[in-house]
Amino acid sequence: MAVVDGLPTTVRDPELPERVEIYEVGPRDGLQNESVVVPVAVKAEFLDRLADAGLRTIEATSFVHPRWVPQLADAADLLAVLDRRDGLDHPVLVPNERGLDRAIEAGCDHVAVFASATETFAERNLNRGLDGQFAMFEPVVRRAVDAGMRVRAYVSMVFGDPWEGSVDPAQAAAVGARLMEMGCSQLSLGDTIGVATPAHVGAVLDACAARGVGVGQVAVHFHDTYGQALANTLAALRRGVTTVDASAGGLGGCPYAGSATGNLATEDLVWMLDGLGIDHGVDLTRLVATSAWMAGQLGRPSPSRVVTALAQPADPSPAP
Ligand code: HMG
Ligand code: MG
């Protein structure tokens, strides 16, 4: 793999934050959607390499029903071999008390519940309606907070839903606010199918603020289906958001939303942050090398523009 020395020119914009926390979701959001099950040893190496590249918050896996997401059925095995060095945070998804029990048994101290802004996706992703999802999450959040764990809340389909169409920002904000009232400490706004555009991001942030959830508690989680993820991220940064979810190499999607494609690629985000002079702590060269290596493991090139520009991924179909 050859990485050329490419870095953008830095021009600082005083309107933007000085530092952004990157919340890496590749090992979870990325690998949950792969048609093949990636071996535990490869997942562990992926997580180690991401940490070596400077990422500090790396969502590791999900304690969901193994039949619903077989790609992550090895969650406990992965955590058993994971290098949990100091300063690293490895949140995991838990939908219900059974998932929380499994996460606690695996030694996790940071979990994430994941709600839907729409009835249809709640049913498809969680086998519950809108009200049923809150009933499922309430004891999870209460027990986790009582045990001193951090709890992140995701809301999916915030900007649009493939079955219900456009989603009212007030509806998405109401779902998020309810999770925050339960005791979650961060709200990640999920554009699961990548339909958001920048002013729409502002409208959703306004709706969240009107429900008492300010930008300091919000993270943004953009999938890049229509190529808007970076523009939407910049819009969120301009509004004061400082936590951005991204996926190394642009891996990602949701097995229960066919139109979801990969997340905002962490490399594309890092390139933009470097150009804007925003601190993030990630070594782009090491990250690109990691995503090029992972692309080789998965047998297909990374969709990230920056990975494509800076690396020559391993040939996905080597000659026999
Ligand atoms: P269910 O079938 O309704 O579960 O699934 P249940 O509560 O009726 O339980 C049925 C059986 O499953 C029981 O076993 C439970 O113990 C077992 P039995 O008594 O019959 O032997 N069970 C479990 N086993 C292991 N781990 C568990 C678990 N829970 C129940 N956690 C459930 C409900 C929520 C579990 C299921 O719908 C599920 O696992 N859904 C997860 C779907 C998922 O992971 N989707 C992708 C993540 S969301 C996403 O990607 C979006 C995001 O990135 C943001 C964005 O982009 O918008 C976060
Ligand atoms: Mg996602």
Task: Describe what this molecule looks like in 3D.
This protein is an alpha/beta fold and 320 residues long. It has one domain: Aldolase class I (TIM Barrel). Helices cover 40% and strands 13% of the residues. It contains twelve helices and eleven strands. The protein has helices spanning 26-30, 40-52, 75-81, 97-105, 119-126, 130-146, 169-182, 198-210, 229-238, 266-275, 284-298, 305-310, and strands at residues 21-24, 57-58, 61-62, 92-93, 110-116, 150-156, 160-161, 165-166, 186-191, 218-222, 243-246. It has a nine-stranded parallel sheet. It has a two-stranded antiparallel sheet with strand order 7-8. The longest helix has 17 residues, at 130-146. The protein is globular and about 50 Å long. The model has no long low-confidence stretch (mean pLDDT 94). The protein binds 3-hydroxy-3-methylglutaryl-coenzyme A (HMG) and magnesium ion. 3-hydroxy-3-methylglutaryl-coenzyme A binds at residues 29, 32, 62-65, 68-69, 93, 95-96, 98-99, 102, 114, 125-127, 154, 156, 190, 192, 221, 223, 254, 256. GO terms for molecular function: lyase activity.
